[in-house]
Specification:
The chain has 427 residues and is mainly β. 3% of the residues lie in helices and 30% in strands. Helix 2 links the parallel strand 7 (124-132) and strand 8. The chain is globular.
Length: 427
């Protein structure tokens, strides 16, 4: 009696108790392609097209390119075909299109924009003291004056070298970019850079330094009556005779920047809206940052070091303004700042029902004034020493580490006695 063959549910091959027949082996060796319902088999891609890792020409890689001088695989770009990278990923690095991070990576314009794209040369006005006094301000013929570059009304102005000039930007939207080490200075007395009217200005990597003429010699000014928006990224504002930055109206945003060595305050904001983050405020004679009048502030994640004197208006930070739900003072580090006896050397704050949070204040003050904070503002989860610890939740004079070492516990195990194998000798 012949047995009926059984169907194996895994591979669909009929099996019998007898040995496999040649046609069965042939079926098992055939590739199986499963088709989704409603998808005809002839519409599926050929198996030969599945592997595109190997190539010999760009035609095999569209829209990618073939790395014919390297691994012979399809890649985004190569050193010889870097031009395929464009828009916000114009640079070819390790066969991948990436954002630019330096001006030198943009061969045509020598201008890398903040979004990672390379600027169009026709959109840039170039300023170089080694250039000529012209109105063109092109890459091939840069002008020596910033004001003439601004007159081109191009959206970008690129600085190279040290430019000695007082600059005023009025009712204009423009981005100022700089090569490494580029500076804007003024050897004659007076304000160095004024931004006013309805201007929208962003400055990247430029150093604004050396304004002279006493109090009037501020580095940057946002005067009263303006609706300016000014953004500083990786900017240095240093060694100005007046305030580093003076704000009466408008909006100022400072990030990853340095405000240092100014004879006035690092920033004086008696109005407008001030945001400072990830920046260093140091060695400003009249104090680090002053916020007064109707000024609003967001000051987060900065380092305040060695600001103020025993006769200055502030130590690191002096806030005297009205209450606002948007005000924030958090995650800052204050050290070696000095203020008069009546002022907290790190933070002096009066801003209505306001709480500063998560700040570290250590080693500020003088022999006669060791108070880290002053004013009615509350503080929480902050470290303050020396002086009186501010009232609030979670405040501590220092981070204490236990001096008593944890007793180590050792467990000894008796080693098992090795067993010597017995050798039996037959006689």
């Amino acid at each position: 009696m012949t047995r009926k063959p059984k169907r194996n549910g895994l591979d669909g091959v009929f099996r019998t108790s007898s040995k496999a027949q040649p046609w069965m082996v042939f079926l098992l060796m055939m590739p199986v392609v499963w088709s989704a319902p409603g998808c005809p088999y002839d519409k599926l891609p050929a198996l030969a097209d599945a592997d595109r890792s190997h190539c010999e020409s760009d035609d095999q890689c569209t829209p990618l390119v073939c790395d014919v001088s390297g691994a012979m695989t399809c890649v985004q770009c190569t050193a010889n075909e870097a031009s395929v990278c464009a828009a916000t990923t114009p640079v070819c690095v390790n066969n991948q299109c990436q954002k630019c991070t330096a001006h030198a990576q943009c061969a045509a314009s020598n201008v890398c924009l903040p979004d990672g794209s390379c600027a169009d040369t026709t959109q840039v006005a170039y300023v170089d003291p080694g250039g000529s006094d012209n109105m063109e301000c092109s890459q091939m013929s840069p002008c020596t004056k910033v004001m003439k570059a601004l007159m081109t009304n191009r959206p970008y102005v690129k600085f190279h070298g040290t430019t000695d000039e007082a600059v005023s930007i009025n009712d204009q939207n423009v981005m100022l970019l700089a090569d490494p080490g580029a500076k804007l200075t003024r050897t004659s007395n007076g304000l160095l850079l004024e931004v006013k009217g309805t201007s929208r200005v962003a400055i990247y990597d430029l150093e604004v330094t050396g304004a002279s003429g006493g109090v009037a010699g501020a580095g940057i000014s946002l005067p009263s009556g303006n609706t300016v928006t000014l953004e500083l990224q990786r900017v240095k504002v240093t060694n100005n005779a007046g305030d580093g930055i003076s704000v009466t109206d408008g909006t100022l945003t400072v990030s990853q920047s340095i405000l240092s060595g100014n004879f006035g305050s690092g920033i004086s904001a008696i109005g407008g809206t001030l945001t400072v983050s990830q920046s260093t405020v140091s060695e400003n004679v009249n104090g680090g940052i002053l916020v007064g009048g109707l000024g609003k502030f967001v000051i987060i994640g900065n380092v305040f070091f060695a600001n103020g004197t025993e006769t200055s208006a502030a130590g690191a930070l002096n806030i005297s303004t009205s209450q606002s739900a948007t005000n924030r003072l958090e995650f800052n580090n204050f050290s070696h700042n000095v203020a008069p006896d009546s002022i907290g050397s790190a933070i002096s704050c009066s801003a209505g029902a306001f709480t500063a949070r998560n700040n570290i204040m250590s080693g500020n003050g003088t022999l006669t004034n060791q108070e880290q904070v002053g004013g009615p503002c509350a503080h929480t989860y902050s470290i303050a020493r020396p002086g009186v610890l501010p009232v609030g939740t979670g405040n501590k004079p220092t981070i204490r580490c236990s001096r008593t070492p944890r007793r180590a516990t050792f467990t000894f195990y008796r080693a098992a006695r090795p067993r010597v194998p017995q050798i039996l000798v037959r006689t």
